[in-house]
Amino acid sequence: MPFNRRDIRQPQGFTLVELSIILVIIGLLLGGVLAGQTMRRNQQLRAVGTNAATYMMAMNQFKTTYGYVAGDFPTATELWGRADGGVPLTSNCAAPDTTASVGAPTCNGDGNGYLNATGHEIFRAWQHLAASGLITGRFTGISPYGIGISIPKGPLGNTGYGWGAGLVEVNNAALADATYFDGDYTNMLTFGAPAAIMDGAALTPAETFELDTKLDDGVPATGGMRVYKSNVACAVDANGYNVGSGAVSCAPLFLSIYKAAK
């Protein structure tokens, strides 16, 4: 068969029109992905505040019903039994700091109005709230901060909620504290990544400012939602967040009204 030059097919590239269409499609896909990520992040941020409000209201209801804050409740075992199954069932656990349980059986607090910093009360609080039916979940009641195990899981990655202990009150400039802006932080609720009381950084300053604006007054040093005074990467001063930074550096604190009787 004679060789025919016209039978040789040269590879054809994309035309400018075809390339333009492809680039538009890629742009639409990327835009959709980014928009979806933004929407998901916004939903998660709203959930941070919604969950916090739920837990604060649950603690308020517990205090109203039982006369004590959850975790500090000194007769919890009379209602739900001892976590260690000891006798009598209505007395406190032999080792409340280390006796784990999942379900209603629990251990007592000391009834002083404050959630203790180093003991079991900040963990039993979640167990008492769940046993009373005011929140959902099953918690061990002891340390460490196991997300979804001893504390509720937060809506952002490796985050959760924790109860702060009976902290020293800071009420005026004369008592100024390096860590906290002036206020009463007794039995506060925290949100963040694992740290001392689930207060590791979890949000950017801009996200925290947005959350504070929606839930409270938008100011880091006042109102019911605050951040640490010592964390200048999050709040540049008492009046403003460091919104120019995109770094994850903030952990919100939700002040509680559940204090010991004076």
Key traits:
single chain; alpha+beta; four-stranded antiparallel sheet; two-stranded antiparallel ribbon; 6 strands; globular
Task: Provide the fold topology.
Elements (H helix, E strand, L loop, with lengths): L15 H51 L9 H5 L40 H11 L28 E4 L25 E4 L12 H11 L9 E2 L8 E3 L2 E2 L11 E2 L8
Antiparallel strand pairs: 1-2, 2-6, 3-6, 4-5
Your description of this structure?
The chain has 262 residues and is an alpha+beta fold. The chain is 30% helix and 6% strand. The protein is built from four helices and six strands; from the N terminus they run αααββαββββ. A four-stranded antiparallel beta sheet has the order 1-2-6-3. It is globular and about 85 Å long. The model has no long low-confidence stretch (mean pLDDT 85).
Question: What's the Cα radius of gyration?
Answer: 26 Å
What characteristic shape results from the CA principal axes? globular
End-to-end C-alpha gap: 109 Å
Number of strands: 6
Q: Summarize model confidence as the mean pLDDT.
A: 85
Tally the helices.
4
User: Which structural class do the helices and strands define?
Assistant: alpha+beta
Q: Main β-sheet, in a few words?
A: 4 strands, antiparallel
Summarize this, please?
Helices cover 30% and strands 6% of the residues.
